[in-house]
Amino acid sequence: MVNIGLSLTLVLGVFDILLAVFYTVMSILLLTSRGSRLGESGVALYILQLLFVPLPLLLSGLIMCFQGWRLDPSLQFGYFLLQAPLVYLGIKDFLLYRNQ
């Protein structure tokens, strides 16, 4: 059963999905433009970050969009707290790419 209505969970879910797509694109652009200056370990860390950061954002965004109406407020707050560091990493990488 899926119930999609305009609520805070839907807004957070859509924001997470958009941020996951945006973060993936920005990470690829940052990696291609700064890959030679980072060295092998820096490139490896960026690839790991590219693999493990957008996936939880995308999955939690989909959960919030389609099943968020079933979550009580404490679980919604838990999702928000789990996503806060991922949002921070996305903003940090965007600012790094912009200041190049």
Strand content: under 5%
Q: What Rg do the Cα atoms give?
A: 15 Å
Q: What order do the helices and strands follow?
A: HHH
Task: Please work out how many helical segments DSSP would assign.
Answer: 3
**Percent of residues in helices:** over 70%
> What does the main sheet amount to?
none
Catalogue the unreliable spans. none
Specify the overall morphology: elongated
Please state the average pLDDT score: 79
Number of domains: 1
Structural class comes to mainly alpha
- Work out the number of β strands: 0
Would you write up a description of this structure?
- The chain has helices at residues 8-52, 54-67, 73-98.
- It has 100 residues and is mainly α.
- The chain has one domain.
- Helix 1 runs antiparallel to helix 2 (54-67) and helix 2 (54-67) packs antiparallel against helix 3.
- The radius of gyration is 15 Å and the shape is elongated.
- The chain starts with 7 loop residues before the first helix and ends with a helix.
- 17% of the residues are buried.
- The mean pLDDT is 79.
Short description:
By secondary structure, this protein is mostly helical. It contains three helices and no strands. The protein has helices spanning 8-52, 54-67, 73-98.
Question: Which properties best describe this structure?
Answer:
single chain; 100 residues; mainly alpha; 3 helices; 85% helix
